[in-house]
Amino acid sequence: MSTRVDSVVEDPGLIEKRRNQIVAAATELFASQGFYKTTISEIAKKAGVSHGLVYLYVREKEDVLLLVLQQVVNAYAEEIPKAMEGVADPLDRLVRAIEAYCRVVDKHRAPTVLAYRSTKSLTPDRRELIQRRETETNNFITEAIRVCMEAGLIRKLNVDVLTYQIVLVAHGWALKSWYFKSRIGLEDYIADSLDIVLAGILTPAGKRRYADLR
To answer: Does residue 21 lie within any of the structural domains?
Structure first.
């Protein structure tokens, strides 16, 4: 199976519009009743389009799941570099990358949870595509950590472990939203998470810099 999602429609603008409708409907249904129990007919009804029209933009249900997951990883790839743009201070760049990651998760909470539940439902080549794309976006954080280490702001640690600790903290906002949503807002979650994560990894110089940033 191709890693692409083909469409018989040639108008890029129309493809984007219709696929956004389909993805929004599918995300809600996949989150509430699961990938396997959801049908194309239900997605079409939820999206306000005909069953046949859906097949002009996707070939099968797995195409829809791929589009849902791609929407999230593409948002990481767009928003994280944008948040770091023009920022020279190494620690500030890392902080902004983490903040941006958390905000993308907030905008895409249901797809973030679906990535944990349903990536296994993709064919191996498509699963690898999503994992590779996620790794590419995580590299923004990895490189920011490395620069901070070189600047003496973060202790020498396993960069991969630290990267994924940060990723898991960001994902935790979606994975445990049932708990957090009635107790804390996003900005407080980000601030508290940064304090907790950075407290254990900053050097004395890093702690002074972080105090200045705050």
So the answer is: no
